[in-house]
Design a protein that fits this description.
This protein has helices at 19-29, 47-59, 87-96, 107-110, 129-132, 136-151, 163-175, 205-211, 213-226, 232-243; strands spanning 3-6, 12-16, 36-41, 62-67, 101-103, 155-159, 181-185, 249-257, 272-280, 283-291. Helix 6 (136-151) crosses helix 7 and helix 9 (213-226) runs antiparallel to helix 10 (232-243). Strands 1-2-5-4-3-6-7 form a seven-stranded mixed beta sheet, with helices on both faces. It has a three-stranded antiparallel beta sheet with strand order 8-9-10, covered by helices on one side. It folds into two domains: 3-185, HUPs (Rossmann fold, 3-Layer(aba) Sandwich), CATH 3.40.50; 198-291, 2-Layer Sandwich (Pantoate--beta-alanine Ligase, Chain: A,domain 2). The chain is an alpha/beta fold.
Length: 294
C-alpha cells in the first residue's frame, strides 16, 4: 500500500489501490473495533467534499474516502474522458483532513473482466436527473453498492446538492438490507450562492457569472414559500423569471416534488424538494433546496 503526502500533523496519507490492499488496510483500521465512516467521491475535490469528510470524522473514529471516476454513470455524450482528475491535489487535501485511508481503484478493480451485474432502483431513478440522463442512476447504484461491499462502513456520507442521488442510494441501502447508516451533509456554496461542483471548473469567467442564476432562482422560490405561496406553478414561474436575465442559462428542468417519492406537486402542503438543472456553457449544473413544511 503506497504512502502519500503528509498531513499538517506529519502523518502520511495511507492509500490503497487493489481490493486486496484495501481489505488489508481496513483490517488494521478495525483492529480496535472502531467505527468507519465512508465518503465516496469522483475526485476533483472541493469544499463540499471536504465538509462531508469533516462530518464523517464526527460520526466515526476512522474515515475512508474513495476517489474513482465511474464510467458507468456517464452517458455516451457526457464528459467521462475530460472529467477533471487532479489526483495529486486531491491527495494533499485529504492528507490535510487527516483521512485514515484513501481507496483509488482502477476501473478493472471495480468492474472486473466479465462483469455483467447492475443495480437499479425503480421509480426514483427515471425522473428528473434520470429522465435527462437515462441509465445514470444504474451506474451510480452499481458503483456505490460495490464500494460499500468492499469498504463495509458503518456510516455513508452523501451531499444534499445531489438530493435525488442521495434518496436513490438511501432506498438502495434499505432495500438491499445493507448494514450502513446513510447520512446527508448540507450543500456548500460559494459566497455568491453557487453550489460547489467539480463541473464548475468547466465554466469560463462569463459563464461562471451567469451560473449564479440557479441559486438565485431557488432563493426567489424560497422567499415566496416563506411568504405563503403554495402553488408549484407559481414557484416555478418565479425561478424562470430570475433565469430570464441570464441568457447563457438553458433550462433542463425546474421541479417541485415530494422529497421521498419525487412525485410532482401541484400545491406545497408539507415537505417538498425544489430542484433545478440547467446547462451553462459546457457544464450541466444542478441545485435544490428541501422545504420542511411550515
Amino acid at each position: 500500500m503506497p504512502a502519500g503526502p503528509r498531513s499538517r500533523a506529519g502523518r502520511r496519507l495511507a492509500r490503497a489501490r487493489s481490493l486486496a490492499s484495501l481489505r488489508k488496510a481496513l483490517a488494521r483500521l478495525r483492529a480496535r473495533g472502531e467505527r468507519v465512516a465512508f465518503v465516496p467521491t469522483m475526485g476533483a475535490l472541493h469544499e463540499g467534499h471536504l465538509s462531508l469528510v469533516r462530518l464523517a470524522r464526527r460520526s466515526a473514529e476512522r474515515v475512508v474516502v474513495s476517489v474513482f471516476v465511474n464510467p458507468l454513470q456517464f452517458g455516451p455524450r457526457e464528459d467521462y474522458r475530460r472529467y477533471p482528475r487532479p489526483l495529486a491535489r486531491d491527495r494533499a487535501l485529504l492528507a490535510a483532513e487527516r483521512v485514515d485511508l484513501v481507496w483509488e481503484p482502477g476501473v478493472e478493480d471495480v468492474y472486473p473482466p466479465g462483469d455483467c451485474t447492475r443495480v437499479s432502483v425503480d421509480g426514483l431513478s427515471e425522473v428528473l436527473e434520470g429522465a435527462s440522463r437515462p441509465g445514470h442512476y444504474t451506474g451510480v447504484c452499481t458503483v456505490v453498492a460495490r464500494l460499500l461491499n468492499a469498504v463495509q462502513p458503518d456510516v455513508l456520507w452523501l451531499g444534499q446538492k445531489d438530493a435525488q442521488q442521495a434518496l436513490v442510494l438511501e432506498r438502495m441501502c434499505r432495500d438491499l438490507l445493507l448494514p450502513v447508516a446513510v447520512c446527508r451533509g448540507p450543500t456548500v456554496r460559494e459566497e455568491d450562492g453557487l453550489a460547489l461542483s467539480s463541473r464548475n471548473a468547466y465554466l469560463s469567467h462569463a459563464e461562471r457569472q451567469q451560473a449564479v442564476a440557479l441559486s438565485q432562482g431557488l432563493a426567489a422560490a424560497w422567499i415566496l414559500l416563506k411568504e405563503g405561496e403554495r402553488s408549484a406553478a407559481r414557484l416555478a414561474a418565479a425561478i424562470r423569471r430570475e433565469w430570464d436575465g441570464y441568457p447563457l442559462v438553458r433550462e433542463d428542468y425546474i421541479a417541485i416534488v415530494h422529497p421521498e417519492t419525487l412525485a410532482p406537486l401541484q400545491q406545497v402542503r408539507g415537505p417538498a424538494l425544489v430542484a433545478v438543472a440547467a446547462h451553462v456553457g459546457p457544464a450541466r449544473l444542478i441545485d435544490n433546496f428541501p422545504w420542511r413544511g411550515r
